[in-house]
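Researcher: Next entry: AAA+ ATPase domain-containing protein (Coptis chinensis).
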Amino acid sequence: MSVIESLYHTKISPPFYINKSTTFRTKFDRISIAYKIPNLSYYHISGKFLRHKKLLRVIRASSCEQEDRNNTDTTSANDSNNKNEGKESNNNTNNTNNKTSTTTTSSNSTGTGSGSKGGVGWWKKGGKWKWQWEWKPIIQAQEVGMLLLQLGIVMFVMRLLRPGISLPGSEIRTPATFVSVPYSDFLSKINGNQVQKVEVDGVHIMFKLKKSEVTVFESNEVAMEESEALVKSVAPTKRIIYQTTRPSDLKAPYDKMVENDVEFGSPDKRSGGLLNSALIALFYCAVLAGLLHRFPVSFSQHTAGQLRSRKSGGSGGAKVSGQGETIMFSDVAGVDEAKEELQEIVEFLKNPDRYVRLGARPPRGVLLVGLPGTGKTLLAKAVAGEAEVPFISCSASEFVELYVGMGASRVRDLFARAKKEAPSIIFIDEIDAVAKSRDGKFRLASNDEREQTLNQLLTEMDGFDSNSAVIVLGATNRADVLDPALRRPGRFDRVVTVEAPDRLGREAILKVHATKKQLPLAEDVDLGDIASMTTGFTGADLANLVNEAALLAGRVNKVVVERFDFIQAVERSIAGIEKKHTKLQGSEKAVVARHEAGHAVVGTAVANLLSGQPRVEKLSILPRTGGALGFTYTPPTTEDRYLFFIDELRGRLVTLLGGRAAEAFVYSGRVSTGALDDIRRATDMAHKAIAEYGLNDKIGPISIATLSGGDESGGGSPWGRDQGHLVDLVQREVKELLQSALEVALTIMRANPTVLEGLGAHLEEREKVEGEELQKWLKLVVAPPELAIFLSGKQESLLPLQVTTL
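Model: Predicted structure:
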């Protein structure tokens, strides 16, 4: 089928494009249409060239089905006989056109034509061609601005050039040659009355000699120190203008100029006529156009006060799913409860009839709350991978801009886009960036832009124009700062807490990452044991752990990843990286070795009395990043613990202060600052035990934070705020508890001097002790009776009575 036949038999929605030339007959006589050929910039229409550099001419046409083949045959016959029977061809064309016109008239009378009123537009029934030309700009206003800017700069620079170069449109001047001469020659010519005209511009002087003196001055090559080439280059028809520079400490000889009737003055630096004014105006317009081209926003056509982002689109940085790696629910582990909640939403979108027939509606929004790294964004990616609906993701920080109203505008555009593609899902990451509470202690200062953005978000989620087919997912790790209006049912119907995984969850996460990375594991690797060592690790921590283990194995060119690599990765995550080139020397090394040995001795004594307590497995005095000079590794128990008893808390206090007690025992009270972190952790634990957990008999089960803080709005509590006496009592009890724990630790050192000194010396020599070598020393540790009394809480203080008072 030829191109013309395809035009006749196919109803093409305008505009359409033909890729090659074709010829056919109409009432306009033979028209040859050749559409744009690569590397050319014109059309050929009726033997004339139409430049196609600025505008695109699109031909719109349609066809009918009644006389298509007759017209096709007529066109083909006319084309074949065109050269030999041109006149006859024209007659045939006229006949054809008359017939077509008649048919068109009848078509219009019956009302079956498809054209617009007046016969403009499309093919009508009967086969009459109608042409419609549409001019479409293919260049933007920014390009016009850049063109004006370039043109203005060029002409402005031309204006700043030295005199003698004529501007377009200026009067024709005789070409001039500028010759530089010393100032002394200028004075001599002035005194000799040889100068006709002088122009003074500060210290710069240009002058012109009298006609009778030009020839004499040109011939004096020695006096003027002109080169022979310059003299030869000066044609007799050229004007010669001499220029010189006046010394700043001399005055121009104005008196002599007046005496000799010399014409002198200064150049007019004002606007130089219509051309210069037009150039300056053009330059300013070009600069303004360039600034508008770089301006980050443009104004909407319909709303004067509504701003739009030209570069990032109306909805900010919102992205539609389908780009990058696809995440499925099978790739998410360790957060089964949160995954089930989101799977229900995906199932509702896939099979809504199952729920609709029961009168259920999908939740308007789901808020994912959890610590950083627990997998909130990963769950959202899994929803995007599982849902068979459009998934639009963005960050809340993208809504807030410098310009007031931009955030609300982007929220409107985002939800308008989602409603257009409904059913759909919107995911807003870190939603607390724009949804902070407008009342209470979180309102530090008024921020109209954030409040407008939040108000628009509230309206879109549950307002008069809300759409139940759009589900909003939000993620935050600061749910306490969110506005209550956003958290209410109807907006965020569900709040899903994404917690750190338990031991089984950590094992599942390790398996997912090991399988996904196709990690070759050695036979001694048990991911269950690795999961037991990583209590408190989040999903992101475990992913980094697997990657660190693989890097450590690849560093020594191993074929598989061994258990040792995982243990090293765990230690790097907990304590930091060992500094291989920074080692302790002299007395510092001995003090740190006794300090870590003291932790091991006290920890073993506590574990001998309390069943189920973890035991020390490794000691090291190699400095690590983060400021730690030593490291005592006590792996957690195989099962996760959610509750701690008072005797276990007391045992941990004694263990934390074991390093300080060892230094005081070995060096006769001369202690160092190495126990800084131990004291900080012990103080925090003791304060929580007394002020929050209610584990002190004198204070009782009272929450000091509640008494001291008041209500959420910042006002006083109904029973009156604490005035400070309870705080003093808590501080007294905390100090007494810590001093008692330190005294018990010293008692353990006195009961095990051989183990402390022997293990400390061995650690000082080897720098790292673990395994059976360490357990050989720790088996000799004995627990004194004072430790059992302190753990039971029967004796609050082992110190003199005066220590218990402030």
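Model: Note for the record: The chain has 29 helices and 22 strands.
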